[in-house]
Design a protein that fits this description.
The protein is an alpha+beta fold. Helix content is 18%, strand content 25%. A hairpin with a 2-residue loop joins strand 5 and strand 6.
Length: 80
Amino acid sequence: MATCEVCGNDYDKSFDVVAAGATHTFDSFECAIHAIAPVCEHCGCKVIGHGTEVDGHFYCCAHCAKHAEGAEDAPVADRA
C-alpha cells in the first residue's frame, strides 16, 4: 500500500505517475489531476485533454488560446 500525496489516503490500489522526471503517488485520477494537470492560462480550468500550447503557454482549447492576452493573432486550432 502507498499513501496518496494529495489526500493522504493509504490505499492498496494506489499508482505512480512519472512527470518531468518526478514520481508522484495517487489513489485516484482526481488527485492526480488536482496535483499535476496544467491550468488553462485563460479560463483557469485544469487541462485534462490534449489542450493547446502557444509560445510556452497552456490552454484548454483553441478558443481560450485565441482569446488570451497577446495571443489573439496566434495560428491555433483544436486538434480534430
